[in-house]
Structure formats: structure tokens, C-alpha cells
Amino acid sequence: MNGSGFRAYKLAFLLPGLLILLAIILFPLIFTIRVSFSSWDAITPGLNNAGGINYAKLFGDVRYWQSLGRLSLMAVGTVLLQYLLGLGLALLVWREVKLRRFFRVLFLVPMMTTPVVMSVVWRTIFHESLGPANDLLGMVGLGPFQWLTSASTAIVSVMIVEVWQWTPFMFLLLLAGLLSLPREPYLAAAIDGAGPIRTFFNVTLPLLAPVSIGALIIRLIEASKIMETVYVLTSGGPGTATETTGYYIYIRGLRDFEIGYASALSITYLVIMIVALTIIAKLLVKVFIGERT
Amino acid sequence: MKVLLQLTSTCCLAAFALATPVRAEDGAIDYSKYGDYAVYGSAPDEPGACSYEAMAKKDYKGRTLKVISHAVPVIGEPTDLHAKQFHDLTGAEVDVVHIPFGDLYQRIMIPFQTHQAAYDVMFYPSLWIGDIHDFLAPVPDSYRDVSGMKDVTVNYRDVATWGDQMVQYPVDGDRHYLKVRADIFNNPDMQARYKKATGKDLRIPTTWEEYNDIAVFFSGWDWAGDGKPHFGSAEVTKRDDLMFSAFISRVAAYAKNPNVKGGFFFDLATMKPEINNPGWVKGLEMFIAAQKAFPPGGNNFGLGDEIFSFGGGQALMSYSWDDAFIQAMEKGSPIRNKVTAAPLPGSTQVWNRNTNSWDKFETPNAPPYITWGWTSAVNKTSKNQDVAFDFLCFFSNEANAELDLQIGRFGINPYRTKHFDPKFWQDKLGWDASVATSYVDTLSGMDKSNNRVFDLRVPGVNQFMSTLANGVAEAMAGQKTPQEALDGVAAQWTEIVNKIGPDKVRAAYANVVALEDQGR
């Protein structure tokens, strides 16, 4: 078989997969880009040519940029907390402990529940008249708190739900990472007389770095799409205090039916996210692995 | 042969009996065959083109009707129920798609815009008429002449009409009104306490100032005697959960001047938004001031929260659609027959944009707000318009409407003259005479007003209402002053008008103004 025949043969096998990839990934993206250059809304249907008017408009859209800032705070804050809690839980059940299997399953329960349903449950918990949160805190002399009706506490409430729901994901990945670590470095550390804290910082954490970076990036990508929790808990309020970019795009696109403008918002958001996450990934590599890369 | 004929006719009759929705022995209609509806009794099948009897004579076998409706239960459940009945009567297949409220607009709009006849029949909020009237088939004369349609009150015929054409088929009647705890207002001890504290008589508020004062006084203490703190006012305040309607209810008193024609939301002549004039700002200030009387979490109340706060006895007063009142009057409610209905409060000072001053009124100006309401329509491009209109005609026939009104979760509220008979509510639902009378008097009184407010039924209504709600929410949260917030909304409204085209918006808004300005 000559070289060109071999390439054609390979191409024939790859083509169906590539076409499917194009259809399900690239086509919606390209279509969204096309829509973003139209003024499609309730009054002007279809794909006309509006030039870059939507992109020009979004630069002056204060609500959009504020939502992006808010989202950054919420995403970075919740993912860091999830990492710390997930790592703590994973370390707890990594070694031989009683009821280890039970705890491993228990810690995963929040992740296995439907986000919208759990947001409704949390909205009930946070309900300032009927919910148990204020009742329970009242028993120890705390509160009552305006969980969903004060700007500062509402954002914390949304973050609590996000952390509760997605810490198990972090736990799962980090536990898998811990279970796959080689035993030899620990034996060497023990022979050298390293205590548990030194072993953790000098052996466990560096060895876990690739998994940590992967987990943080995956969660940051997911957290940057916070939507259901905000939708159910606060509808972006009070005022715009908890409005995230995803929720704002939903309002402009599906509620207000400004399809063209919402597409421009989405594409801009996508570009910002790609750039931001690339930078964050490089920073994480530097922090966790340092000069070794 | 005779035996064969007899056998055939017997079989046909049996098949007809099986296919026909259950009738009581007196020929009345009930829903017991279709679910847990037996408790709602029966209603007579009034003769006419939309009756069960008339529908049973139609043969739509092989025809399929595609219907889009709201999620169950509000309007979705009656759609399902009547679709099954219609199928049993006529043989038509009725495929009902249920869509959550947040997605309903785009699910209806995208097929329209892409020229697909995705649905023959649509159920949706009536204020979308400004966006979709071009896609709707006018209601044929034959259906406008049926007894049920002739009995629809003037407000709901107006709601269904675009220009001089009826393009929506009325199936519901909605409006905002005040609901209060009559047992507290009539309690001599409460009256004395209020008098002592404020020097004023405790009475059902006729102005928003009185409303706020009473609400604040009755907040944070146990006036119901059940050991829990209670509160003065439950209002719909969640930004994207119909809060704009609550705000407009409050604003109307200050900004809908009966002496000023030509627009409440805009000045029709110039299409300049009026939403930041002093009347609107005053309404927003009063809305913000009322927060002191909200239950905990009341700043984030959606419609469901408002319904259960008032309907569950937590709040003294509330205003919005019928649901909270109906909830309060459900069997088993702790405040059943302890409530009363009244018109929305008003104001003795009303902004006059022609003179740029406040007009004073001896009798408070209290414009009824005919807001929202579920409606239905037939797609202009539908190939099944005959079946579709028959379905809607059947859906809203007198017997069905009478039974649907009694099932609170259906979300169907009075819209025909015959629904405004106190005896109906007393006999069918066991309401006390005073409650039933206050209810029907309040609702029917709105039809007599010549200073009504309707929704902003223009193209892009969702954009207008969404920006309004956001501005109001920002002011409610203290992020902006009322004037700053409404100035911001006015700027955005101007931008939207310019984008859509001032002439296009003006032409649509003229229809709203015509309804609001026409006398009675």
C-alpha cells in the first residue's frame, strides 16, 4: 500500500466521525456566530445582516459586564471552596476508616440530585418565613438572616448551594487521584522521617497536581455556567445582585426574545471564557507544578 | 335483516355512549370520568353550537389538532381535560404540548417567524397579542355569535381584540384587585388598637397611603392569635416573576389620570416614555416603602409565594390576580370566609402630564388594571381551523367554564356576565354571602370603569416589561433611587422604540390607548 492510498483509507474511516463532530459541535457554533450578526428578535425575524451592531451594543451594556464580574467572583469562590472541601473529604476516606464505602456514597449524593430540584429544596430551606435555616440558627442565637432578599447574603446563598451540589464532583476526582498514587514515595518519606503534614505538602499534593488542575479547570468551566441555581433561588435578584452572565443571556434571549443580541452576548462570553480559562490553567500549572514544566 | 339493523344500532348507541363524556341522568355534564373531578359536581349542557350535544354530532375522525399550552395545572390541566373530552366527542386527535412559562413565548414565536404551522391552537398570556396578532386567524362570526361569547364581558372582549378584529378566543378573565382579612378589619379590638396607635379608623384602604400605613401597623406581631408573627402585605416582588404587574397596579393610581388622554405608558403623540414622570416615581416610592410590611423574604416573593402568604393567613392584605383569594377560600383553608375583595387602592393626587402638576381628587383615583389573563388563538396558517375553533368553542362552553371556575388550580377566572352572580359562588363553593358579593362586585365593577389600564400590548412587550422589572428591582434593592431607576428604564424604552420603529410601536399602542380612553 502506497502512502497516498493509506491516507485515503484512514480518511475514509475518520470521515463519518469528523462529519458528526462538525454537525453536533461546529454547526451550532457557526450558526450562533451567524445569528449574532443579525437583528433577529420578536419584530425582525430571521437572519438579516445587521453588521456588528450587536457587538457594538454589548460594549455599553453595563448589566452584562457587571454580571460577568459577579460570575467570576462566584465561580472562583465556589470552585476554590469545593476544592478544599473535596480534598478534605477525599483524604478522610482515602485511608482505612470505618464505614468507608458508606461515606464515599454519602458524599456523592448531592451531585447525583437534579440541580433544579435541589435548588427548589434549598429555596425552601432558605425561605425566611417557613424555611428551617433561620429556625435552626435561631436555636443557637444566630439570625434571622435575609438569605435571599439582601444583596450580600443572596450571593452567599447561591454560592452555598453551588458548593453543596458540586463538592462531591471534586471529591470524586480527587479520591480517584489519591487512590492511584504510588506507594513508593510514601515509603521513602516515612524512611526519611517525614511527618504527616510534611508528607502531605511534599508528597501528596505534588503527586496529585495533575488531577487537581484537571478537576479545577473542569469545575471552573461548569461553574462559569451557573444558571439553574440563580433561576430558582433568586431570579438574579435582589435587584441584579445575583445575576450571572448565563442568566442574563437567558433573559435577553429567551424571555425578551432578542435572539441576535443574545447570540452576540454568548459568543463574546465564550471568547472571554476561553481566554480566561487558558490563563487560569497556566497559572494553576505554575502554582501546582512550578518550574518542572 | 331487522335483527341485524337492531344489532347494528344497538352497537352504535353503545359505542356513542362509551365515547361521550359522562352525563348525569338529568343531562348535566361532569368530569368524573377524567380524574378526581367528581367533587365539583355537574353543570348543565347549555344548548348551542359549542355544547356537548353539538360537538357529539361532529365527525373529526382522522383529523389531528396540535395544541401548545402552559405546564400543568394552570391552564395546562384544563387543556388536557378538554382535549380528551373533545376527542371522545368528535373523534379528533388532540396532541397537547405543555411548556413551562419561561419557554412558552419562544416556543410559540419561533414557528411563527419561520413560517411553520407547528401548532393549530395556542394558549398563552393575552398581553402577547401585540407580537403575534399578525399570525392569528380572526375568530369567525359564527363563533362570535354563540351564546357563550356574547356573554363575555366587555373587558375580556377588548382584551381579545386587535383593532376591530377579535383574534384571541376568550377562555379566562384576569385583573388585579385587593384582598384583605375581613375578620381583622371587622374586629373591634383591632379597630381600637389601630385607632389608638394612629388616630385613624381601621377600614379597607382606598388609597395606597392608607394601604401602606395599615400594612406597616399590622406587621411583625400576632394579630391572628395563632402564636406566630403576621405581616401587613404580601406582594409579587420577584423580578422576573410578574413583578411588573404588581408595580403597575400601584402606579396606576398616581399616573393614570382620567382627565389625560393619549397614553399611560407613552405619550402616544410623541412616543416619549412616561414611566419616569412624577406619578410613576411616586408609585415606585410607595412600593419601596411597603417593604417594611412584607413578611420575611417578601422582597423575593414570586406569584406562588404571594398566593400562599395571603392564602395561608400570613399576611393581612394582598393584591394581584384571583389566585390568592381562591386559595384563601379553598375548603380547609384557615381563613376560609374570613376574607373580602375590594378594588385596588387609589390616590387623591394624580400626575397630569399635560399641566406638569398634580391633580387633586376628592374620591381617590383607582383605575382597574385589566392585566394579563390566559387566552387562546388559532394559527392563521393552520389547515385545521374548523376543528381548532370548534375545540376552543367547546373548551369554553358554558358547562365547562362553570366547572373550570370551581377548580382553583386550573387558573380560569370569571370572564362572563353569568360568572358574576354571588349565588354561583355560594351554592357551588360554599362561600359566605358577604364574601361572594364582595368578590363579584369588585370584579364586575371593573367593567363599568372608564379609566382602565391595560397591559402594554405592543411588539416587543417582553423587552419593555423586562427592562421595567429590572429598573424597579434595582430601586427596591437600593441599588438606585426611584428616579434614577425609572430614568434608566425610560432610556431603554426609547432605545427599544427606536429599534422597533416608533411608527410601528405607535400603531400598536394606539390600540391600547383606544381601549383605555374609550368611555363607558
Oligomer type: heterodimer
User: In the CATH hierarchy, what is the class of the largest domain in chain B?
Assistant: Alpha Beta
Rounded mean pLDDT of chain A is: 91
Q: Determine the fraction of residues in helical runs of chain A and give it as a percent range.
A: over 70%
Number of domains of chain B: 2
Shape of chain B: globular
Subcellular location (chain A): Cell membrane
Transmembrane segments (chain A): 12-31, 71-93, 105-125, 145-164, 171-191, 197-218, 230-250, 262-285
Domain ABC transmembrane type-1 (chain A): 68-280
Family (chain A): Belongs to the binding-protein-dependent transport system permease family.
Overview of this protein structure:
The complex is a heterodimer of chains A (293) and B (520). Chain A is mostly helical and 293 residues long. Chain A has a single domain, classed as MetI-like fold (Orthogonal Bundle). Chain A has twelve helices and no strands. In chain A, helix 3 crosses helix 7 (151-179), helix 3 packs antiparallel against helix 9 (196-223) and helix 11 packs antiparallel against helix 12 (259-289). Chain A is globular. With 520 residues, chain B is of the alpha/beta class. Chain B has two domains: 33-174 and 372-420, Periplasmic binding protein-like II (D-Maltodextrin-Binding Protein, domain 2, 3-Layer(aba) Sandwich), CATH 3.40.190.10; 177-367 and 449-517, Periplasmic binding protein-like II (D-Maltodextrin-Binding Protein, domain 2). Chain B is built from 22 helices and 19 strands. A five-stranded mixed sheet of chain B has the order 4-3-5-18-8. A four-stranded mixed sheet of chain B has the order 10-13-9-14, sandwiched between helices. A two-stranded antiparallel ribbon of chain B has the order 1-2. In chain B, helix 12 crosses helix 13 (278-289), helix 18 (422-429) crosses helix 19 (433-445) and helix 20 (461-476) runs antiparallel to helix 21 (482-500). The longest helix of chain B has 19 residues, at 482-500. Chain B starts with a helix and ends with a helix. Mean pLDDT of chain B is 93; it is low at 1-19. Classes of the chains: A mainly alpha (293), B alpha/beta (520). The interface between A and B is medium-sized, with 32 and 38 residues.
